[in-house]
Specification:
This protein is α+β, with helices and mostly antiparallel strands. The protein has two domains: about 1-65, Nucleoside Triphosphate Pyrophosphohydrolase (Alpha-Beta Complex), CATH 3.90.79.10; about 65-99, no CATH class. It is built from three helices and two strands. It has a two-stranded antiparallel ribbon with strand order 1-2. A hairpin with a 2-residue loop joins strand 1 and strand 2. The protein is globular and about 40 Å long.
Length: about 100
């Protein structure tokens, strides 16, 4: 977050910077803490909606994809997800579904 930035503004900016998507930010769905070089990062996760479908990976991402439940499960089994992501989403009831 930038100084003086609200959570919703930070989420909109970060999602755009990392995926190219313009989103409407919804409710807080969960929070996690992760070790940082000096202390701890507190990460707040919000639900978001968009009408856009084209993703582009930002400068600190190797790739960006839409993942249904099966693809997400495969990425999880293959160790391709950020550590703790699947567990957090599972505990919040937010795993991707197969559509």
């Amino acid at each position: 977050m930038e100084h003086g930035e609200s959570d919703h503004s930070a989420v909109r900016r970060e999602v755009f910077e990392e995926t190219g998507l313009v989103v409407t930010v919804g409710d807080l769905i969960g929070r996690v803490e992760r070790p940082a070089p000096r202390g701890t990062f507190e990460i707040l996760d919000y639900s978001c909606r968009t009408n856009e479908w084209v993703l582009s990976a930002g400068d600190d991402a190797a790739d960006a994809i839409w993942a249904d439940g099966a693809t997400f499960a495969t990425l999880d089994r293959n160790g391709a997800l950020t550590a703790g992501l699947a567990e957090a989403l599972r505990s919040w009831g937010c795993l991707p579904r197969n559509e």
